[in-house]
Amino acid sequence: MLFLALALRFGFTETLPGYLFLAASGTILSRIDLKTKLLPNRIVWSAFWIGAGLLTLASGTAHSWPNLARAGLGALILFSLYLFLALISPAGLGMGDVKLAAVLGMYSAYISWGTLFVTGFLGFLLGAIVALIVAVLGQGRRHTTFPFGPSMFGGAMISILGSAKIVPFLFPLLPTGY
Predict the structure, then answer these.
(1) SS3 for 148?
(2) What is the mean pLDDT of the chain?
């Protein structure tokens, strides 16, 4: 379903392979995280470096170097934010989440700054919704942990697929094109 949605979103352009790779790797990582509460380094870093290569190839083909520069900054920004949060609350976020944030930040920022902001916002919103559901169903206690990677990935996919509509709705003061 994600492949179809991404093909409809991007069409058969030079960026589509990178986003299809994100969908595949993000789905695998989410499944592993749900099962083990871990995001394996070899998969996360492969997703980052292969994704960076695919986006670089897309930028070279389409001559969209500003998008690639924004993607690099987006990876750094989301990575730094998550690292800061993990350092002040180590029980809340794992280092796998921090590294996944770099991947999602890269792909989101490649589209626009607004997409990056929405990705970050929706990841935390989906995580809060999951925590609320766990609490309401009585399945968790105060210190119950649950994997955050699937919420991060879900937020990124929603943002990437719907950024043209979501960004102006959530951030109406952003100038057009962000």
Answers:
(1) coil
(2) 91
> Do 30 and 77 form a contact (C-beta atoms < 8 A)?
no
DSSP 28-39: HHHHHHHHHS--
Q: Which two tokens mark 17? A: 């392979």
**Cβ atoms < 10 Å from Cβ of 75:** 24
d(CA 119, CA 74): 11
Query: Is pLDDT of 39 > 60?
Result: yes
Alpha-carbon distances of 158 from 4, 145, 152, 163, rounded to whole Å: 14, 24, 10, 8
CA gap 144, 101 in Å, rounded:
22
pLDDT of residue 168: 66
Residue recorded with tokens 């991947």: 103
**What three-state secondary structure class fits 112?**
coil
Residue 174 has a pLDDT of: 60
- pLDDT tens digits, 90-137: 888 999 999 999 999 999 999 999 899 999 999 999 999 988 888 788
- The pLDDT of residue 52 is 98
From the list 46, 108, 33, the residue with the least C-alpha distance to 75 is: 108
Structural tokens at position 167? 């960004």
Intra-chain end-to-end CA distance of the chain, in Å: 27
